[in-house]
Design brief:
heterodimer, A: mainly alpha, MetI-like fold, 2 domains, B: 506 residues, Butyryl-CoA Dehydrogenase, subunit A, domain 3
Chain lengths: 316, 506
């Protein structure tokens, strides 16, 4: 008897078909509670995004009156169209896209090169240099020395402040190193026999073969760049033209109901806009602009979660 | 293993690389001189970034905290204080454009010198070429030295002509300039000297370098970046011993020793702040540690859901909040909990108007609220690691337990939980090591006039103190103490891990 149930259980393992297993009342109650809990929690993770979204595509007057709660009414894209009049918003979008693209690309190239190089035992004092890089993960001088250092280097109030400090990322170097070590050594050896240099081997063999891990670090790096806010806040505080989208959003979220602070004075019809747009709508719409790129890459990210896990585990 | 030993063999084989001829005695002497040359190059590169070693600060009006590198790359940084001087004709812009170019020339010379230094690691042919490069850089630096003198004279002349010596305050950093002169001479002399010590390469020789140095040189830029952005900030710790305000210069005059350290312990206002801040930090980290089992429970109960489609749905959507920034989390908080947010709108439509509580403005239970936001954002993501671990558990264990009559909870408690404990321990130890660093973004975005007091954690306090209030030395001291304590905690956590599990976590 036990054997039969076992077999059945085994067959249904991970499957959706449960009809063969007899459920006790306790099981049913447990399942109801369990499903309900996860359903509610998942709902709280989705609903805020949905709520903000329906408010941005609804008629502004209804939004202002607080009439949009569960379903969008009076569908319109005017809220998005009017974002052009918001001070420097598109500038911030551009800056953020640029830093995400450049910062991620450089980080990936450098991580992959460094990850390959640290696997090479022939390197002069390899162990020392590898430790030299890894130690930086566990120790930092603190916010103020970091800031003073950046200003000493002349990186305050520059776009480069977003890119250069993030190029060397020890954690990603470790990830690439681990991956490169798993590539069969024979491939590299045969290239050596043909007289290929390290650089050629890196470019022609290591780079193409380690693409899966590079995709992983690229995607996590890009999300990090997109979300990054502290560098804009601390290093570029005096250069509004360099504010990232997150920083801009933070400012708008805090500028309560002061439309004048948000709308650019150069626009002639600020008055008109003010009647149709209020702070709330602006905040919602900018939030949406900030979220959408993340939601767009999210489906592609999912298959890299497993690899990215290590990332979360080590960083704690 | 095999890969590397084979590679080593290959390196020595004639197929790949021609073995360099035996070193001659004069070449051995050259090797020693090379170390002087390389040390000079490294020193020169480092000097570029230190304001103290700026030979281009030819006027008191140039910011003291400007390094030669900044002077070379940015004309604006040199003349940031010169608006009036230019307008009233104390000095001319042309002179300072020349200064900017001269600084750029020195930077170029140093880059060239660095290239020459790198080439010194190659074979004879490459060494010889490298020496020519070094010679060129030496000449460039020598030229820049005389050019700087001329610019200085020009500034003096202009200031005298406009009778503004006092304002323009021409300077000639003799020591630093002599240092640059010495470096230029070292380059030239070493380059010429070594050139004659190294035997001529054979005609058939090609440019080549030993693999160990090739690899090292490929790594060098990465090492340099890591040094500049991760090690160099440590040099900023010296601010902790000075009475420094933005724009000041560190000198023996404002050296105060351990004043800020003692103030931390003695000044009652600071002490009160620190106590509050530490209370907040430890409370919130503590709450995080106490609830650190929640992602594990989340994963265990999630794995009890047998409907794969629903499970995937839950996993997909509970992970999203992890990938949005804290600013966006705050935007969501505003959308839901503010005066005209979702909750008030709902209450108004259900129970009539008059509901306009701004839930974000209250100061009650801030620690718990922050914990809740942290969990909302992180639990789905943190659970993934446990979900992966659960799927790796041997199914036979569960089957055996079923045979023994174990129920659902017994299996969870006696099989799943013990299997997950090692993973949990690592994460727990890491979070204990990070007890002082809970980041500032979350607390910064959520703070307002009502709840500021209970949200001020250590990281945020350092930011407010250092960046907003400009108390750089005091905030550096706090950061220093924090860094040191964090490292100690990490070591302790690591030894605990080693003692208990026989594995290190770092």
């Amino acid at each position: 008897m036990a054997e039969i149930t076992l077999k059945k259980k085994h067959e249904t393992e991970g499957g959706e078909n449960k009809s063969h297993i007899k459920l006790t009342t306790g099981d049913i109650i447990f399942n109801i509670i369990n499903y309900a809990f996860f359903f509610i929690f998942t709902f709280t993770c989705i609903f805020p995004f949905y709520y903000i979204f329906i408010n941005t595509i609804s008629d502004p007057t209804l939004v202002t009156r607080g009439a949009i709660t569960l379903i969008p009414k009076g569908l319109t894209l005017s809220n998005y169209k009017q974002m052009g009049a918001v001070n420097d918003l598109w500038n911030s979008v551009l800056i953020t896209f640029l830093r995400t693209f450049l910062g991620t690309a450089l980080m990936v190239v450098v991580s992959s090169l460094a990850g390959y190089l640290v696997t090479k035992r022939e390197m002069w004092h390899r162990q020392f240099w590898y430790r030299f890089l890894v130690i930086t993960m566990y120790f930092n001088a603190g916010l103020i020395p970091w800031y003073l250092n950046m200003s000493m280097l002349g990186l305050t109030n520059t776009f480069a402040a977003y890119i250069i400090p993030g190029i060397v990322s020890p954690y990603n170097i470790i990830l690439v190193k681990t991956y490169v070590e798993s590539i069969p050594a024979e491939i590299e050896e045969s290239a050596f026999m043909d007289g290929a240099s390290y650089w050629t081997i890196y470019r022609k063999i290591i780079w193409p073969l380690s693409k899966p891990i590079l995709a992983t670090i690229a995607i996590f790096g890009a999300v990090g760049q997109w979300n990054s806010f502290q560098d804009s806040l601390i290093l570029n505080a005096n250069s509004p033209e360099l504010y990232t989208l997150q920083h801009r959003l933070y400012i708008y979220l805090n500028s309560s109901s002061n439309l004048g602070a948000i709308m650019s004075s150069s626009t002639t019809d600020v008055g008109n806009l003010a009647t149709s747009l209020n702070t709330k709508i602006i905040q919602y719409t900018i939030s949406m602009v900030t979220i959408i790129p993340i939601l767009c890459v999210y489906p592609f990210m999912q298959r890299y979660f497993e690899k990215g896990l290590m990332l979360g585990a080590v960083k704690g | 293993m095999a890969k590397n030993s084979t590679a080593d063999l290959l390196m020595g084989s004639p197929v790949v690389r021609r073995k360099e001829a035996e070193k001659t005695p004069s070449e051995r002497i050259a090797d020693k001189i090379y170390w002087l040359l390389r040390a000079a190059v490294v020193a020169n590169v480092v000097m570029l970034f230190f304001p103290y070693f700026n030979p281009a600060r030819l006027s008191g009006m140039i910011n003291r905290n400007l390094s030669l590198f900044s002077c070379g790359v940015s004309y604006q940084s040199i003349v940031s204080n010169f608006g009036r001087a230019f307008r009233q004709g104390w000095v001319t812009e042309g002179t300072f454009h020349a200064l900017n170019l001269c600084a750029a020339l020195i930077i170029l010379a140093v880059v060239v010198a660095a290239a020459g230094g790198c080439m010194s690691l190659g074979n004879r042919k490459m060494k010889k070429a490298g020496l020519v490069v070094t010679l060129i850089s030496g000449l460039m630096e020598l030229g820049a030295y005389f050019w700087l003198r001329q610019i200085y004279v020009a500034i003096v002349n202009e200031a005298t002509a406009s009778n503004r010596m006092k304002n323009v305050e021409p300077l000639y950093p003799v020591g630093i300039n002599t240092l640059y002169l010495v470096l230029a001479i070292i380059y030239i002399v070493c380059a010429v000297g070594i050139f004659f010590l190294i035997p001529a390469p054979e005609k058939s020789d090609r440019f080549d370098m030993e693999p160990k140095f090739q690899l090292f040189l490929m790594m060098l830029p990465i090492i340099a970046l890591a040094f500049v952005f991760s090690y160099l900030p440590l040099y900023g710790w010296r601010y902790a011993f000075y009475d420094y305000k933005a724009g000041d210069v560190l000198s023996s005059e404002n050296y105060v020793g351990f004043k800020w350290f003692t103030q931390l312990l003695q000044n009652s206002a600071t002490k009160r702040d620190i106590v509050t801040v530490l209370k907040n930090t430890l409370a919130m980290s503590g709450l995080g540690i106490i609830t650190s089992w929640i992602p594990m429970a989340f994963a265990i109960f999630l794995s009890e859901i047998k409907n794969m489609r629903f499970r995937r749905f839950v996993q997909t959507f509970t992970t999203i909040p992890n990938f949005i920034s804290w600013v966006l989390v705050y935007a969501i908080a505003l959308a839901i909990f503010s005066t005209d947010g979702f909750i008030n709108t709902m209450l108004n439509s259900l129970y009539g108007a008059g509901h306009s509580t701004n839930y974000l403005m209250s100061a009650d239970h801030m620690w718990l609220k922050m914990l809740a936001w942290g969990l909302w954002k992180g639990v789905g993501w943190s659970a993934i690691i446990y979900v992966a671990a659960i799927s790796g558990i041997d199914q036979g264990l569960y089957e055996a337990a079923t045979v023994d009559g174990a129920g659902r909870f017994a299996k969870m408690w006696y099989i799943t939980v013990p299997e997950l404990i090692p993973t949990y321990c690592v994460l727990l130890l890491m979070s204990i090591a990070n007890i002082l660093s809970n980041g500032m973004e979350q607390y910064m975005v959520f703070s307002n006039s009502m709840n500021r007091e209970s949200l001020q954690v250590l990281d945020l306090y350092v930011y407010n103190l250092g960046i907003n209030s400009g108390l750089i030395p005091l905030s550096t001291v706090i950061g220093m103490v924090k860094s040191v304590v964090s490292v100690i905690l990490l070591f302790v956590a690591n030894s605990v891990s080693k003692a208990i599990r026989g594995e290190s976590i770092v």
